[in-house]
Amino acid sequence: MAENFDQKLAKYAQLAVKTGCNLQPGQELYVSADVTQVQLVRHVVRCAYEAGASNVHVQWSDEVVGRMHYDYKPAESFSEFPEWRAMLLNGTAKRGAAALFITSEDPQIMAGVDQQKLTNWVIASNKACRDWRDGMDFGKNVWCIIGAASPAWARQVFPELPEDEAVAKLWDAILHTARCDGEDPAAAWSDHEKSFHERKDWLNGQHFDALHYSNGLGTDITIGLTERHVWEGGGEVTVDGRFFFPNMPTEEIFTTPDRRRVEGTVVSSMPLNHDGALVEGIRITFKEGRAVEYSAEKGGEVLAQIIETDEGSHFLGEVALVPVTSPIKQTGILFLNTLFDENASCHFALGMGFPECYEGGRQMSKEELLRVGVNDSATHVDFMLGTEDLSIDGIKADGTRVPVFRNGDWAF
Ligand code: ZN
To answer: Are 270 and 334 in contact (CB under 8 A)?
Structure first.
């Protein structure tokens, strides 16, 4: 018998709680969701208590109200993060809670917002919520981000469809790319994890000194890698050994580059939706790791805001490999949401690097990490560069070149 929509959501909630967060008996769960996701959240809360959660805290938001803050609140207030909220988040992290983030946002909700307010808010919240941020960045807490269709989001992905059909179609795409539309989603994820392992092991065994990217769009760039870089992807393990999937879906294998050794030009291949603005035709030239020249065919002021967030946002924090055969790419849908779109294409990210992508990095301070080439910034913004003609060579310390990508797909 075919499952009805509510049964599908129940299965999805189960996947997020048990497989994504790998929630343990006695553990707390923090859930953040928009008010459009009541049906899914109720399943999540029930699943979490059935799994033995000691407490489930649901942090509701309403994106329309969220937008009103940016339109009406005085600019100075964005540099101050409310104390009570910092206490909630830092305390939750310190008690070892798992966090589940349900993203359903209207891609346009922040369109036209004063970028300075957004930047100030990101900086203020990172400063006030250090334990919360570090809990996730340094592998102390488990966390998982999943997608959920909302009418405002679906309308923009499928503008030609009536709203209810658009929502249904977006849900289908979400459940499909999250590998939640088969008989046994948990088993599908364990198979998925195995394929990540083979590729990560190969890449880690090569000990590349650099990667060289080139394609017909004009990307021609060499990315230096640190001597102790680690390729990650799929599931992650916390410092105390808890396995979890931070992103559902996920198709990327990524590492953190040597922030000082990026030379050349990269051209984006897909529009980037950033806070409601589409940035297209990004072209950035790096010298000794720093973005020295940049432009965009559309949304140039947004790109400038991203790059000028702080000093670290002039440098790369992530390089990720995603083949054109990715199921997300294969849907042919531009989701206008990074969780999905970054898994459709090879990408780089400006800003914060990943301590777990440097051997022993989680035991190092931000200052130590910076010294060895792992970038630090208040921001982390992905942009897509993969194309069907993308070639990537791995370059070893002795200059030997090994094909990693050919025609946008794995070469090994
Ligand atoms: Zn990524």
So the answer is: yes
d(CA 343, ligand 1 centre) in Å: 7
Average pLDDT score, the chain: 96
Tokens for 340, please give them: 């999905």
Phi, psi (deg, nearest 5) at residue 35: -60, -15
| Cβ proximity of 234 and 243 under 8 Å | no
pLDDT for 295-321, tens place per residue?
999 999 999 999 999 999 999 999 999
Radius of gyration of the chain (CA): 21
The reported pTM is 0.88
71 alpha carbon – ligand 1 mean position (Å): 31
Q: Token digits for 107?
A: 């891609």
Q: How far is the CA of 200 from the centre of ligand 1 (A)?
A: 15
- Please give all residues whose CB falls under 5 A of ion ligand 1, grouped by chain where several chains appear: 252, 320, 342
Q: What are phi and psi of 45, to 5 degrees?
A: -65, -45
Q: Cα(382) to centroid of ligand 1, in Å?
A: 6
Measured in Å, residue 254 CA sits from the centre of ligand 1 at: 6
Mean pLDDT of 17-41: 98
- Other CB atoms closer than 10 Å to residue 232's CB: what's the count? 22
pLDDT tens-digit map of 320-364 = 999 999 999 999 999 999 899 999 999 999 999 999 999 999 899
CA-nearest of 385, 6, 379, 364 to 217 is 385
DSSP 357: G
Ligand 1 midpoint to CA 269 (Å): 15
The answer to whether 273 touches 341, Cβ cutoff 8 Å, is yes
Task: Work out whether strand 290-295 and strand 236-237 pair parallel, antiparallel, or are unpaired.
Answer: unpaired
Residues forming beta bridges with residue 278, ordered by sequence position: 273
8 A C-beta contact, residue 321 and residue 252: yes
Query: CA 46 to CA 16: how far, in whole Å?
Result: 12
pLDDT digits (tens, 9 = 90+) for 175-216: 999 999 999 999 999 999 999 999 999 999 999 999 999 999
